[in-house]
Amino acid sequence: AGIIMVRLDDQVPAKFQVLFPWHKSFGLLAFILVVIRLWVRARSRVPALPEGISGWERKAVRAGSFLFYALMIFVPCMGYALSSTYTQSDGEFFFGVNLPELLPKNDAQYEVFWLLHRIGAFVLLGLLVLHILGALKHRFGDRSRANDVLSRMT
């Protein structure tokens, strides 16, 4: 939705009446779900990686997991910050509920938050693609079925 809505002309009513409010609502929902997930993960045992996973792959998994969680916190926070600081913003919505804007209106700060939100979102999407490709590689490309990491998702 973010990619589509920023490319639409400002005269398209759905841009500000539908896409922006839903984008903000789902972004905030994603943030809440990630915080809950981190809380659950901190109190749970993470399944061990399969024995056949190489050392560099183990490091990549740790780095990727850290980066995933960091970006899943960072991107919505930057979105909330850019919405709060934008002088033309009419509020931060969460499925119809108006939430407080915690930062003062400042278009110069908005530009920084917008750039950080955009870069973070694209890095997150790229990381997601790499994550999916890695899981598929272990499912279909490895010689040993014991390296199938998808079984950890139960």
Give the helix/strand layout.
Layout lengths: L1 H6 L5 H30 L12 H31 L6 E3 L2 E3 L7 H35 L13
Antiparallel strand pairs: 1-2
Short summary:
The chain contains 4 helices and 2 strands, in the order αααββα.
3D architecture notes:
It is a single chain. With 154 residues, the protein is mainly alpha-helical. It has four helices and two strands. The chain has helices at 2-7, 13-42, 55-85, 107-141; strands at 92-94, 97-99. It has a two-stranded antiparallel sheet with strand order 1-2. α2 (13-42) crosses α3 (55-85) and α3 runs antiparallel to α4. It is elongated and about 55 Å long. It starts with a helix and ends in a 13-residue tail after the last helix.
The amount of helix comes to 55-70%
Q: How many beta-strand segments?
A: 2
Strand order within the widest sheet? 1-2
Q: Give the DSSP E fraction (strand runs of 2 or more residues).
A: under 5%
User: What class do helices, strands and sheet pairing give?
Assistant: mainly alpha
Listing every helix as H and every strand as E from the N terminus to the C terminus, the arrangement reads: HHHEEH
Oligomer status:
single chain
Mean pLDDT: 90
